[in-house]
């Protein structure tokens, strides 16, 4: 956004934060600030913001930081102990997982074999039914032949 | 324990070798920085205490995964920022199920209020500016607040912030500029 003085306001902020990588640009802005009261005031405001941010930083007494550090160490010790305990149970769980996986493979293989047998049985039954139908048809054909012979004789 | 003057890689090596003294050394070296970064984002003494402890625990527990490809700062700050996210997410869940369960709050073991330990600002003007700044930070979006705090409290460069937050440098700049303008506008004449 261009300011009334013609300079881009982002440029002033970048300059303030030391993020202008181009030395020529940085020099241009620095020179502009010396001549522009509005931009100089903006830099001053930004400096106050930075000082203000430093003022909200928390300063605990040494005992406070000691308590904080001890709290972290306590949590680390507790967590490591819990992790160790968990590891004692996790190893058998992984072993169980292997057994479980093996059982799963067996179940899937078993289901596969069952399905194969079922399809085989279905095919066989269909073949038997077709043959029965053929036999039925044969009987009809033979009877027709017999009757034709009777008629013709 | 005096603040450590040893370089981070040396301390990290000792921690990975199981040296508990080195662990405490690292904690004391960065506890204040981690605490203040989180305080800048939450503006709550107690939450900052609890979250910063959790963050430091994660930093130490996962030290083995720090391979030195980025700076230790990036690793530390990434865990710090993520810890704030995690805490807020858990708070949302906790508030939804609080009537039905006894979900553990990291602050349950803290038997005091942190504000009782804090040194009270005796300079009235400085305190008032600080209070107004805290209030103005609440006008920022989460990402703007993170960028603004990492820049103005931790003094990180744009490149470092982009590595911590895993966003482009251009996006960091954009958030920083918008946050700065918002803060400046909200504070108004108080800064003159």
Question: What do you see in this structure?
Answer:
- The complex is a heterodimer of chains A (153) and B (192).
- By secondary structure, chain A is mostly helical.
- Chain A has a domain at 82-153.
- Helices cover 86% and strands 0% of the residues of chain A.
- Chain A contains 4 helices and no strands.
- Chain A has helices at residues 9-16, 23-35, 37-55, 62-152.
- In chain A, helix 2 crosses helix 3.
- The longest helix of chain A is centred in the C-terminal third of the chain and has 91 residues, at 62-152.
- The relative contact order of chain A is 0.04.
- Chain B is mainly alpha-helical and 192 residues long.
- Chain B folds into 2 domains: 1-98, RNA polymerase sigma factor, region 2, helix turn helix motif (Rna Polymerase Sigma Factor, Chain: A), CATH 1.10.1740.10; 124-192, Winged helix-like DNA-binding domain superfamily/Winged helix DNA-binding domain (Arc Repressor Mutant, subunit A, Orthogonal Bundle).
- Helix content of chain B is 66%, strand content 0%.
- The radius of gyration of chain B is 18 Å and the shape is globular.
- The N and C termini of chain B lie far apart (42 Å).
- The model of chain B has no long low-confidence stretch (mean pLDDT 83).
- The chains are: A mainly alpha (153), B mainly alpha (192).
């Amino acid at each position: 956004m261009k300011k009334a003085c013609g300079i881009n306001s982002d440029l002033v902020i970048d300059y303030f934060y030391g993020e202008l990588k181009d030395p020529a640009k940085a020099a241009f802005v620095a020179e502009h600030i010396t001549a522009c009261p509005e931009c100089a005031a903006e830099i001053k405001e930004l400096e106050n913001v930075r000082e203000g941010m430093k003022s909200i930083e928390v300063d605990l007494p040494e005992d406070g930081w000691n308590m904080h550090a001890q709290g972290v160490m306590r949590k680390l010790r507790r967590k490591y102990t819990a992790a160790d305990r968990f590891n004692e149970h996790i190893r058998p769980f992984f072993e169980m997982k292997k057994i479980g996986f093996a059982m799963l493979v067996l179940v899937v293989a078993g289901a596969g074999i069952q399905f194969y047998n079922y399809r085989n049985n279905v095919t066989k039954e269909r073949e038997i039914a077709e043959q029965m139908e053929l036999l039925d048809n044969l009987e009809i054909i033979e009877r027709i032949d017999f009757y034709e012979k009777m008629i013709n004789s | 324990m005096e603040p450590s003057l040893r370089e981070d890689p040396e301390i990290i090596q000792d921690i990975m070798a199981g040296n508990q003294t080195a662990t405490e050394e690292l904690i004391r070296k960065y506890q204040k920085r981690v605490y203040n970064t989180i305080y800048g984002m939450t503006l709550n003494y107690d939450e900052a205490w609890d979250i910063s402890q959790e963050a430091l625990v994660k930093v130490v527990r996962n030290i083995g995964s720090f391979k030195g490809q980025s700076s230790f700062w990036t690793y530390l700050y990434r865990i710090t920022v993520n810890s704030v996210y995690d805490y807020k997410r858990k708070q949302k869940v906790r508030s939804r199920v609080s009537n039905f369960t006894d979900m553990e709050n990291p602050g349950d073991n803290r038997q005091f209020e942190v504000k009782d330990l804090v040194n009270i600002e005796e300079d009235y003007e400085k305190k008032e500016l600080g209070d107004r700044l805290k209030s103005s930070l609440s006008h920022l979006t989460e990402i703007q607040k993170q960028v603004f705090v990492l820049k103005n409290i931790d003094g990180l460069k744009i490149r470092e912030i982009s590595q911590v937050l895993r966003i482009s440098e251009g996006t960091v700049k954009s958030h920083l500029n918008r946050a700065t303008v918002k803060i400046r506008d909200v504070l108004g004449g108080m800064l003159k």
